[in-house]
Automatic annotation (TrEMBL):
GO terms for molecular function: heme binding; iron ion binding; oxidoreductase activity, acting on paired donors, with incorporation or reduction of molecular oxygen, reduced flavin or flavoprotein as one donor, and incorporation of one atom of oxygen; steroid hydroxylase activity. Residues 1-20 form the signal peptide. Heme binds at C430. Its cofactor is heme. Belongs to the cytochrome P450 family. This is CYP3029B1-like protein 2. One of its GO terms (biological process) is organic acid metabolic process. May be involved in the metabolism of insect hormones and in the breakdown of synthetic insecticides. The keyword Ribonucleoprotein does not apply. It is found in: Endoplasmic reticulum membrane; Microsome membrane. One of its GO terms (cellular component) is endoplasmic reticulum membrane. It is a peripheral membrane protein.
Length: 488
């Protein structure tokens, strides 16, 4: 009696395995897809871009992998990524666990689509464009105040090996605080400490939780000690309360005639009853700016200081340029950036070399689309392998080395270089890129103008990463200490 049942189950299982291993018609090729596991045995989830580069050699620039039973199309190479990401059909964003958990639903910019997404995104772009436009002194002054405080803080620890993350984060968070709330706080104040802790813990949680988008069952079967969902929920709720409190405070102070910070301008639209502009939308945007905007810039700056401390000859060249154009120890301002090609090349080469977001954020097709002869149904998940560009000999003479000359031609800066896309490209390109570029330039150049970065004794100068990036995980440098010496 039992054998017919076992045989039927076996047949069903075999049919399921065969079905799971067949790709849809005209779908991009790729490694075999196994039942339940998909292509996982063929992927190193801690270093997806490395696995992707191997698969690219075999299957070409467009291939597909399966995460569990979900197909993901992976794009490689500058031309292919550009061709796809510039088309509106590829501008969708799949619902992902971390993003919707953090915002308590699909709101803000990163996780939304359609009219809501474009209205919020355009608002942020216009605002950032306005405050960072050359001639707009206000925002640069704010950044320079923070840079001055950072330097004061560094001066207290001259000639000692120090970890830089906390000091950098204080500076970055206060820049964002000014942008969103029109004020700053001292790092010792309780409110600052709370926000710092929330941003830090939420970022950690979101990185760890990226896998739950593909395998939501894990949130049910794994113990809290592994998923850390309760802890994530605690910090998320605290940050929601804080962002809502900021808006209440702003409302009380708002007289309808201020045109200052981001909240003032957003509230103006709320008051006019413009579509998609609500106080909840504003709170979501602020939370997003704090979490995405602080961690990315912080990781990039940590890479910058690490790389430069390991390359004294590069520091020497930047300092020669800064001294010549601005004067030794004199504040370096954004309007000088045109005359500082080597310094600008350093900022760009750090972005290429560090490659902090190797697979960016996942996209989705919003309707049926074709790409290089393949048919991609609506709602297909799309991932770009930016490393395939940032590490390609097609664009870089020494892809594996830190080589600022990659961005220089006859002593001039190459502004838009093919194969370079630290902020993604096309319809979803990072709206914070100009702000981030300014922050990186001002913080880095002003530090180098005053200090020499020196490796700690015994440091072997390894420029390795703490963990290779899987999706939604930023590549960090290995933890390090560095010595700041006054330039004699
Ligand atoms: C060095 C710093 C930064 C890097 C490397 C970076 C990189 C990226 C990348 C790769 C994406 C994904 C693009 C795509 O989906 O194709 C992105 C999206 C985004 N970034 Fe940044 N970013 C940085 C700084 C910032 C800052 C300072 C802000 C905020 C002020 C910001 C806000 C956003 C937002 C809101 C999105 C989502 C855009 C959308 O879905 O339309 N980023 N960023």
């Amino acid at each position: 009696m039992i054998w017919p049942v076992v045989c039927s189950l076996l047949v069903i299982f075999i049919i399921y395995c065969i079905k799971a291993s067949i790709r849809p018609r005209d779908f991009p090729p790729g490694p075999p897809c196994l039942a339940f596991l998909g292509s996982l045995p063929y992927l190193d989830v801690r270093n997806l871009s490395k696995s992707f580069s191997k698969l690219q050699e075999r299957h070409g620039d467009v291939f597909s992998v399966f995460i569990g039973s979900t197909p993901v199309v992976v794009l490689n190479g500058w031309k292919t990524i550009k061709e796809a990401f510039e088309r509106p059909e590829f501008s969708g964003r799949p619902g992902n666990f971390s993003g919707t958990f953090f915002q308590k639903g699909k709101t803000g910019i990163t996780t939304t689509e359609g009219k809501h997404w474009s209205s919020q995104r355009n608002f942020l772009i216009d605002y950032l464009e306005n405050i960072s436009r050359s001639g707009s002194q206000g925002f640069q002054d704010i950044m320079m105040d923070e840079v001055t405080d950072l330097k004061l803080d560094l001066t207290k620890k001259l000639s000692e090996p120090i970890a830089v993350s906390y000091k950098l984060n204080v500076c970055i968070i206060n820049i964002l605080w000014n942008l969103c709330c029109g004020r700053r706080l001292h790092a010792q104040q309780q409110e600052f400490q709370t926000v710092y802790e929330c941003v830090d813990k939420i970022t950690q949680f979101m990185s760890r939780a990226a896998i739950f988008s593909f395998l939501p069952i894990l949130t049910k079967v794994l113990p809290e000690s592994v998923t850390k969902i309760e802890k994530g929920r605690y910090y998320r709720n605290r940050f929601h309360e804080i962002s809502e409190k900021w808006i209440r405070e702003h409302r009380q102070e708002y007289r309808g005639n201020r045109t200052g910070d981001l909240q003032d301008l957003y509230l103006e639209k709320v008051n006019k009853g413009e579509d998609n502009f609500t106080e909840q939308g504003l709170a979501a945007m602020i939370r997003e700016i704090f979490v995405i905007g602080s961690e990315s810039v912080s990781v990039m700056l940590r890479w910058s200081l690490r790389i430069l401390s390991c390359h004294p000859e590069v520091q020497e060249k930047v300092q020669e340029e800064l001294d010549r154009v601005c004067g030794r120890g004199v504040d370096v301002t954004w309007d000088k950036s045109d005359q500082l090609p080597y310094t600008m090349a350093i900022v760009k080469e750090v972005q290429r070399f560090a490659d902090i977001a190797p697979t960016g954020l996942m996209h989705k097709t919003v309707c049926d689309a074709t790409l290089q002869g393949y048919h991609l149904p609506a709602n297909t998940l799309i991932m770009a392998n930016f490393t395939s560009c940032h590490q390609s000999t097609e664009f870089w003479k020494h892809p594996e080395k830190f080589h600022p000359e990659h961005f220089l031609e006859n002593g001039k800066l190459i502004e838009n270089k093919e194969g370079f896309m630290p902020y993604g490209l096309g319809t979803r390109i990072c709206p914070g890129m100009k702000l981030a570029d300014m922050e990186l330039f001002l913080i880095l150049s002003n530090i180098l103008s005053s200090y020499q970065l020196v490796m700690v004794e015994g440091d072997d100068g390894d420029l390795g990463t703490q963990f290779e990036g899987g999706t939604a995980v930023l590549r960090n440098p290995k933890p390090y200490r560095v010595v700041f010496e006054n330039r004699s």
